[in-house]
Amino acid sequence: MKVTKGQILVRGITHCCPNCGAKKLFKEGSLFELNSECPECGLKIERDEGFFLGSMSLNYGFTIIGFLVPVLILYLLGVLSGAVAAGTAGVGAIGVPILFYRSSRSWWLMSYYFFLPKHLPANQGELVRGQDANI
């Protein structure tokens, strides 16, 4: 069964395996620990050391652009006082990355397979899949 780019997007947004669609990217009972591979289809989630550095950049960018810049703008417009803006920024600088952690990991994995859909086992031919098992 071929996996389309649309399916990859939906699976990434909903934190599902990009290959089979199982909602098992993260270990059961854990908020932050990724499975090394999908328990349903065996897709290797932790690809290489440093693979998820991009998700950290995504998380950092979202925190700055999506949260801290709006707080700064509200402060500069006089909507927030200095103390409220500083407190909000401090709490947000710690809280937003924690809240966005799972999404940033899932979205980074999604973006990889969105641009390289042929790397998914479901999109490879039987011969290639058989060769991968012997490596």
Task: Describe, in plain words, how this protein is organized in 3D.
The chain is mainly alpha-helical. The chain has one domain. The chain has four helices and no strands. Helix 1 packs antiparallel against helix 3 and helix 2 packs antiparallel against helix 3. It is elongated and about 60 Å long. The C terminus is likely disordered.
Total beta strands: 0
Order of helix and strand elements from N to C terminus = HHHH
How helical, in percent, are the residues?
Answer: 55-70%
- What's the alpha carbon Rg, rounded to whole Å? 19 Å
Describe the global form: elongated
Taking the sheet with the most strands, its summary is: none
Number of domains: 1
Q: How would you classify the helix and strand content by structural class?
A: mainly alpha
Give unreliable regions as ranges.
127-135
Give keywords:
mainly alpha, elongated, 135 residues, single chain
Topology diagram in text:
Blueprint: H1 5-13, H2 53-76, H3 82-115, H4 126-134
Helix pairs in contact: 1-3, 2-3
